[in-house]
Every structure is written in structure tokens, then in C-alpha cells.
């Protein structure tokens, strides 16, 4: 007959098992924390000018990485989840080791002087929710497989750098994107129609680039879009009718392009929240629609430097929230 193990032996076995498991978890966490520390120290090593000695004073191995200024850790795992060193006037480059922060959710290097290209490892950080590199001197092209590993990304801010090339159509694979800011760079080519598949978008900023071609009809699929800035490009043809059906839109700026055609007579039928409309410095013609008065929340209307003709609609006087009205340099009579 087999002997049944005593209760005491079973308890000892379970305690030993738990002890081994705890040791393994602790060891893994220690390794991960060391990896995070090394990644941040690599970033520190790639900074060539730190005018306020911010990293020199705050980032040293005598303190836990979770106590470093600008670093946020998860309270349970002690892994780095946020890095915010914006506005410190740091000069340097972004090391590939930064991609080893495998639990990072927020990466903010804005308002510094980082140069060079974005390392490919950054685009493999599947935990990232927000990338903010606004106002640096970064350059290069965005990879064609941009969103292959960034399925959780919600915000992408690359404004005011020196990025060039085409805007990747694969941005549409970042299904959770709420904010895209690629303004004041040097992007060229057309606006990818696939952006119309990013249906959670609230803000789309593409101003101040070298974009050409027409505005994709597919942008009309962005039912939650509130801000659309496409000004200061080289966009052509008429505004797609689908844009005027974006009922959440509050701010539309298409100024300083080469857009043509007449504004639709029902321009405000489906724009109940529109507050700002900039269409100046294009080639629009025809009459100014009297139905603009149906945009009850309109505060700024700029139609300057176009080819509008006819009378100024008296109905605009019903737009009682209007603060700024620009109609100069047309053929109004």
C-alpha cells in the first residue's frame, strides 16, 4: 500500500514551492528594473548638452530609477511606465536602448533639441499609448510598417521637426489613435485615404507640410473628429462633400492651399458645433452661402483672398456668436 503523505509534509512542499516562485519573480523584476535603468542611462549618455544639469543631478545609480525625476513606475512591478523630460533644452540623440523600456506607456521628449532619426526599436514598443516628440530637430522618414507593433497607440505628436517622405498609409493600423499631429515638418505626397479608417480620431493636424493632391473623401468616415488642420500645403480640387457631414467638427482650417470650387449651399446643415472655419488663400469661387448662419456656434469665419462674388449674405447677421469675420480680397459687390 502506498503511504499517504502527512499534512506536515504537504505544507512544507507548498511553502518550498511558493518560496521558489517568489524568488523567480523577484529575480525577474530585478532583471527588468536593471534593464530599465540601463536604458535610461543610455539616454543620459546620448545627451551632449544639459544646460540645467537636470539629468546629472537627478539620474544616478545611488537612487532607485523610480525616484528619478521625470520617471514614473508601476507601483506593483516597479517597471518604468512613463518618461517625461520635455522642455529641458536637452541636446542629443535618441538611443535604440530606449526601446528596452518594455512597459513604457508615455514617452515625452518634447521641446528639446534631440536630433537624428527615431530608432526602429521605438516602433516595436507595443505598450506605448503616447509618443510626444514635438519641437525637436528629428529627421528621417517614418517606417512603412509604422503601426505593426503600436496597436495600443492613442497619441502621436511629431510636430515641428524635420521629418520627410510620405505619411505612411499603415497609420490606419493604429486603430486606437485619437490624436495625430504631423504639422510643421516636410512630409510630401498625398494624404493617405486609409486615415479614414482610424475612426477614433479626434484631432488630425497636418498643416505646414508639402502635401499635394486632393483631400480624401474617406476623411468623412471620422465621425468623432473635432479638429481638422490641413492649412499651408498644396492641396487641390474641391472639398469633399463628406467633410461637411462631420457632425462633431468644431475647428476646420484648410487655408493657404490651392483648393477650388464653390461652397455647398447646405454647408452648415450637418455642422452643429462648428466654431472656427478658415478657408482663406485658396481659389474658391461662387457665392458665399447664406446658410452659413445655420452654424450657430460659429465664432471665426475667414474667406479672404479667394474669388467669391455676389453680395455679402445678410443672413450672416444672424450668426450672433461671430467674433471675427474676414472677407477681404474677393470680388464681392
UniProtKB/TrEMBL annotation:
SMART domains: LRR_TYP. The keyword Signal applies. GO terms for cellular component: plasma membrane. It comes from the Eukaryota. Gene3D superfamilies: Ribonuclease Inhibitor. Keywords: Cell membrane, Leucine-rich repeat, Membrane, Receptor, Repeat, Signal, Transmembrane, Transmembrane helix. Residues 35-74 form the Leucine-rich repeat-containing N-terminal plant-type domain. This is Leucine-rich repeat-containing N-terminal plant-type domain-containing protein. The lineage of its organism: Eukaryota, Viridiplantae, Streptophyta, Embryophyta, Tracheophyta.
Amino acid at each position: 500500500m502506498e503511504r499517504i503523505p502527512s499534512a506536515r509534509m504537504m505544507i512544507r512542499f507548498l511553502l518550498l514551492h511558493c518560496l521558489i516562485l517568489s524568488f523567480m519573480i523577484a529575480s525577474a523584476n530585478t532583471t527588468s528594473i536593471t534593464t530599465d535603468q540601463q536604458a535610461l542611462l543610455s539616454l543620459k549618455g546620448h545627451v551632449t548638452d544639459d544646460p540645467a544639469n537636470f539629468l546629472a543631478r537627478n539620474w544616478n545609480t545611488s537612487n532607485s530609477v523610480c525616484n528619478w525625476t521625470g520617471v514614473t513606475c508601476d507601483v506593483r512591478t516597479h517597471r518604468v511606465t512613463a518618461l517625461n523630460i520635455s522642455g529641458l533644452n536637452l541636446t542629443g540623440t535618441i538611443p535604440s536602448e530606449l526601446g528596452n523600456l518594455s512597459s513604457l506607456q508615455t514617452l515625452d521628449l518634447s521641446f528639446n533639441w534631440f536630433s537624428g532619426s527615431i530608432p526602429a526599436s521605438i516602433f516595436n514598443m507595443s505598450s506605448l499609448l503616447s509618443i510626444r516628440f514635438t519641437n525637436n530637430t528629428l529627421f528621417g522618414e517614418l517606417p512603412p510598417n509604422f503601426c505593426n507593433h503600436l496597436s495600443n497607440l492613442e497619441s502621436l505628436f511629431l510636430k515641428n521637426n524635420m521629418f520627410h517622405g510620405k505619411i505612411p498609409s499603415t497609420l490606419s493600423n493604429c486603430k486606437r489613435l485619437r490624436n495625430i499631429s504631423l504639422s510643421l515638418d516636410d512630409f510630401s505626397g498625398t494624404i493617405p485615404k486609409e486615415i479614414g479608417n482610424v475612426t477614433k480620431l479626434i484631432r488630425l493636424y497636418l498643416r505646414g507640410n508639402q502635401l499635394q493632391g486632393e483631400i480624401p473623401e474617406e476623411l468623412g468616415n471620422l465621425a468623432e473628429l473635432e479638429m481638422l488642420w490641413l492649412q499651408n500645403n498644396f492641396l487641390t480640387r474641391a472639398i469633399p462633400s463628406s467633410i461637411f457631414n462631420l457632425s462633431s467638427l468644431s475647428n476646420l482650417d484648410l487655408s493657404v492651399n490651392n483648393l477650388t470650387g464653390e461652397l455647398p449651399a447646405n454647408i452648415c446643415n450637418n455642422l452643429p458645433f462648428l466654431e472656427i472655419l478658415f478657408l482663406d488663400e485658396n481659389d474658391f469661387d461662387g457665392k458665399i452661402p447664406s446658410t452659413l448662419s445655420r452654424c450657430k456656434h460659429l465664432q471665426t469665419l475667414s474667406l479672404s483672398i479667394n474669388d467669391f462674388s455676389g453680395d455679402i449674405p445678410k443672413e450672416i447677421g444672424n450668426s450672433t456668436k461671430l467674433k471675427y469675420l474676414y472677407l477681404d480680397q474677393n470680388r464681392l459687390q
